[in-house]
């Protein structure tokens, strides 16, 4: 049992409140996942800067900055708890190869708009450590985890990002993730954990890389991903929601003229603005719901 949440803003007037809204939702889902929590924030960025979200683990910021400066010239670092956001104009193919040389860090996401933060611990504490309530953005996705498939570590926490400006959170369990992992590795995918959700994220990235759109990809997953699940998949422009065709994992959506919110339980959305006047419904099994994509 885990908790998933997401908000897509239709109105720019709420962008400064995104972090506050998402933090309240994550805290309210703490009862479904007390082991770890994480979130992805998307911002509308107009420049050509790439952002790399990195967990330093046991490496000091000074040591990382010193070693990185030997590899690239122009970059900025923003620290948040044990995570940093590396900003540079250098392309991902170069930076990811450089980051792979650092043995003590974890790359948790990258792109032009996404920032990802995740840690082991109670969701209330994780939200506080990262100061989520102070973040602004266009849309966000979050997860509270009750560990069942893999160890309680940062690498075992959601969201998972396996492609540029992509991420996935998942409530459920996949039974064929080991076989699918082997197939994806042969195609060039790399995985940092034994978590089944990271494999699902890799499956989505591989499909998008082959020019399939997000809706087509998720529909194909109904045949290729065995198990039970509710997914929220984030992209630079928005997010999509899918429940498997058995739909034993709960989800509820609240939509107003200003936002779309999704959560495992309605209680996560109880404090959202004007939610009492929202259109509230459960997503139908096997149907992809998408906003912004």
Account of the 3D structure:
The chain is of the alpha+beta class and 293 residues long. Helices cover 24% and strands 30% of the residues. It has 7 helices and 15 strands. A hairpin with a 4-residue loop joins strand 10 and strand 11. The two termini are 28 Å apart. The model has no long low-confidence stretch (mean pLDDT 94).
State the gist of this model.
The protein contains 7 helices and 15 strands. It has 293 residues and is α+β, with helices and mostly antiparallel strands. It folds into 2 domains: 3-44 and 136-291, Glutamine Phosphoribosylpyrophosphate, subunit 1, domain 1 (4-Layer Sandwich); 47-112, 2-Layer Sandwich (Alpha-Beta Plaits).
Number of individual domains: 2
Unreliable segments of 5+ consecutive residues: none
Fourth CATH level, the homologous superfamily of the largest domain = Aminohydrolase, N-terminal nucleophile (Ntn) domain
Element-level helix/strand string: EHEEHEEHEEHEEHHHEEEEEE
Helix segment tally: 7
Mean pLDDT, to the nearest integer, reads 94
Any idea of the CATH class of the largest domain? Alpha Beta
Strand-residue fraction? Answer: 25-35%
The general outline is globular
Helices and strands, with pairings:
Elements: E1 3-9, H1 18-28, E2 36-42, E3 50-55, H2 61-68, E4 76-80, E5 83-88, H3 92-99, E6 106-111, E7 114-120, H4 123-129, E8 139-145, E9 167-174, H5 177-186, H6 196-209, H7 214-224, E10 227-234, E11 239-243, E12 252-255, E13 259-263, E14 279-281, E15 289-291
Antiparallel strand pairs: 1-8, 1-13, 2-7, 2-8, 3-5, 3-6, 4-5, 9-10, 10-11, 11-15, 12-13, 12-14
């Amino acid at each position: 049992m885990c908790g998933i949440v997401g908000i897509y803003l239709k109105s720019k007037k709420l962008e400064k409140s995104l972090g506050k809204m998402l933090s309240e939702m994550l805290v309210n889902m703490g009862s479904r996942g007390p082991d770890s929590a994480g979130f992805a924030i998307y911002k509308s960025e107009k420049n050509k800067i790439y952002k790399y979200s990195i967990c330093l683990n046991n490496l000091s910021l000074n040591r990382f900055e010193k070693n990185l400066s030997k590899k690239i010239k122009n970059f900025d670092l923003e620290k948040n708890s044990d995570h940093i956001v590396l900003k540079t104009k250098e392309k991902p193919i170069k930076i990811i190869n450089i980051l792979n040389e650092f043995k003590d860090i974890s790359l948790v996401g990258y792109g032009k708009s996404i920032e990802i933060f995740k840690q082991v611990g109670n969701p209330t504490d994780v939200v506080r450590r990262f100061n989520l309530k102070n973040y602004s953005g266009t849309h966000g996705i979050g997860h509270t985890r009750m560990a069942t498939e893999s160890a309680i570590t940062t690498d075992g926490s959601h969201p998972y990002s396996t492609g540029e400006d992509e991420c996935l959170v998942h409530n459920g369990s996949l039974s064929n993730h080991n076989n699918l992992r082997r197939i994806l590795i042969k195609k060039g995918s790399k995985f940092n954990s034994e978590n089944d959700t990271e494999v699902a994220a890799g499956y989505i990235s591989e499909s998008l890389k082959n020019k399939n759109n997000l809706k087509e990809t998720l529909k194909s997953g109904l045949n290729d991903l065995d198990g039970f699940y509710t997914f929220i998949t984030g992209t630079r422009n928005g997010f999509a929601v899918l429940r498997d065709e058995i739909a034993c994992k709960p989800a509820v959506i609240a939509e107003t003229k200003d936002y779309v919110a999704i959560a495992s339980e309605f209680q996560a959305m109880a404090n959202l603005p004007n939610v009492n006047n929202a259109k509230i419904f459960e997503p139908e099994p096997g149907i992809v719901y998408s906003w912004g994509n």
